[in-house]
Amino acid sequence: MDLSAFPYLQGNYAPVEEERDFGDDELVIEGEVPRQLVGAYMRDGANTAYQPNHYVYPLDGDGMIHAVYFNQGKVRYRNRWVQTSHLLTERKYGRTIYGSVGKLLEVPQEVIDAGGEPSPIRNTANTNVLYHGGKLLAMWEGGFPHLLNNDLSTVGLYDYDGALQPGDALTAHPKICPDSGDLISCTQRWDSPDYFLQVFDKNGKHKQTTRVEFQRKGIIHDLQITENYVVIFYAPAFHSVEKAMKGEDPFEWQPELGTKIIAIPRDGVSEQLVFETDPFFSWHYCNGFEEGGKIVIDYIWISSIPFTQAQGTGVEKQPRRMYRMTLDPKTKQVTNEQFSDVFCEFSRVDERLMGKQYRYGFAASSNRDWGDAHGYNCTGRYDFETGETKLWEFGEEANAGEPAYVPNPDSDREEDGWVTNFVYNPGEGAFLSLLRAGDFDAGPVCKIRIPGRVPNGFHGNWCQDLVL
Questions:
Q1: Total domains, the chain
Q2: What secondary structure letter does DSSP report for 107?
Q3: Which of the four pLDDT bands, split at 50, 70 and 90, describes residue 311?
């Protein structure tokens, strides 16, 4: 492949071709692996298999899962492609058939006639990997998730026993309620402007649907739960499939419409609350909770839509900051304040405190300027009690991924868990880092060094008790 024209396929954004397996005797451990950890850290990401027709922002590329399995001090690594129907069709023909989300391609009739995947919209399965209700799922918000085995082999599309209907697109950003074990998710459809809140119980059985009506389908990437609400941001950001098929810029930003915040009651029957504020965009929430009758939301603020079809605009590199928003259900007042001036994204918390009052947020962060493409060379800890932001830098040229929280099974305190992520540092190589959540100054308690490279990716999670 010739990737030279695409900034977000350079350096550690570039794909890897190999599927690899390394046992405990092949991984170099620096420090000490916590022996009480039994489970796996898995992370999904875009991994381009064939020459792309177009690639501006890393939304495209077939999903590849990278996993490190832990079992009482022993570790194993493996990575696998998610074998989607789009990837399998391209494998059959040995070339690119499906285009970018920003510039779709018409599927050749000969491919359709031969039984190839007919949809021009690639189910990338590249955004998140989640373990819930005994099911391991690779997720992408534009279609069904893919069910995986523990060894990362692909089973196939998963419809939650028929709860998902053809055309439903399940979000890649659900939240798990720490009290009930419910998975709070949503579906959107290409043929409807509306948003459908979906709830699945701790065993993965569908239990509730709540409809939110919109005049136009918006780009709604994430959701946040609190005790009584599910909060979403309806920014004036839109995508047109018709324009993408014509080769026109399909992304639209209409700031005159402002951004609406919708608080959807979790009981499924109470009145939905609508708040209005100045336009802004957000990919990701950190956490949320309720206090004194108000709703508090911590999230990553971006001033406008951070992607476009054209290359070299720099819109994807605009400032991203940790913000705290307070919503007053009585007055409908919105207070929106910057918490930190650090460039950050991919914010996470101790999932045991999801929707509850908490102290620490964690995010991929940067303390330097980047060139053609933005990135993150630090893991940041955002202390909502003291207001302090603390960074652990992995190196000026390092690529540090989204931090996921790994709970300490012997403690319910936030500070006693670990924060883990994949890091690639030129000259040092690839490794999985574990930082003690309560002691960033000490640096990683261990680095699990992985032969070869682990590319930059998207979202990952700790999968408790999932082993090979």
A1: 1
A2: P
A3: confident
